[in-house]
Amino acid sequence: MPTRRRTVVASVTAVVVVAVLVAALVARGVLWPNRIPAARYEVRGVDVSAHQGTIDWPVLAAQDIDFAYVKATEGSGFVDDRFAENLQGAREAGLLVGAYHFFSFESPGRSQAEQIIATVPADDDLLPVAVDVEHYGKFFGDPPDASTVRGELEVLVAMLRAHYGVDPVIYATQAAYDRYLAGGFPDSPIWIRAVYLPPRMADGRAWAFWQYSHRDRLDGYDGREPFIDLNVFHGDLRELSDLRSSG
Predict the structure, then answer these.
(1) Active-site choice (74, 132, 134, 167)
(2) Is 123 noted as a catalytic residue in this protein?
């Protein structure tokens, strides 16, 4: 084999080996593309559910964590098994804490709001409720009608605003944001999920929260889910705290 060809083959092999190694490190949560751009934001947080199992909140909070969103509800009839436990634990660990609701495309906005209101206390020390809007199951391939979803979301948001005195945060994947939220809900802080590259908002809107990783590993939990979501807030701790009374 000519020397030049051997060099090319060796170079291609090296690139493939590096690519495989990087992919393996990303899959294990050791290396994550967004950590460097996310590092410029000083306020960091996690979002958790029963999938993280029992959480040692002081241990988790000690890892440069400032806030936590804990799953409360889903649709019109589901309450996370560990909501009350996580809410109390995160509070006692000194974190700024909020509850989040997983929005169902198969349930009316009114009944979902009623489920949230029946579960999440209207306490002054809590961050605004967050509503998680993303495609799931069959809706990845067959997304529901945008105008229908926006209508149900508007009902839910209005009911939460009336009950809690502040507009809810709305969490969305970039696809869900573009389809259902872009250009609307101007008073709700946006929490965008963008785990491979920094967020790009279709309507040029500024985000308040950014979920930059869904495969990190921290100490302090023992659930069946080995990974934990990491987020940053676009502001300082005072500004994050002020969201509680921004309505």
Answers:
(1) 134
(2) no
Nearest alpha carbon to residue 72 among 62, 82, 61, 57 = 82
Enumerate the H helices of the chain as residue ranges.
Answer: 3-27, 35-38, 57-61, 83-92, 109-119, 146-164, 174-176, 237-242
Closest by Cα among 153, 79, 172, 146 to 110: 153
134 is catalytic: yes
Tokens representing 161? 């605003």
- Active-site entry in 47, 66, 152, 229: 47
Identify which of 231, 135, 209, 213 has the alpha carbon closest to the alpha carbon of residue 176.
Answer: 135
How far apart are the C-alpha atoms of 49 and 29, rounded to whole Å? Answer: 19
Candidates 33, 47, 39, 25; CA nearest to 225 is 47
pLDDT in tens, 31-41: 568 899 999 99
Q: Is the pTM of this model over 0.85?
A: yes
> Which letter does DSSP use for residue 207 in this model?
P
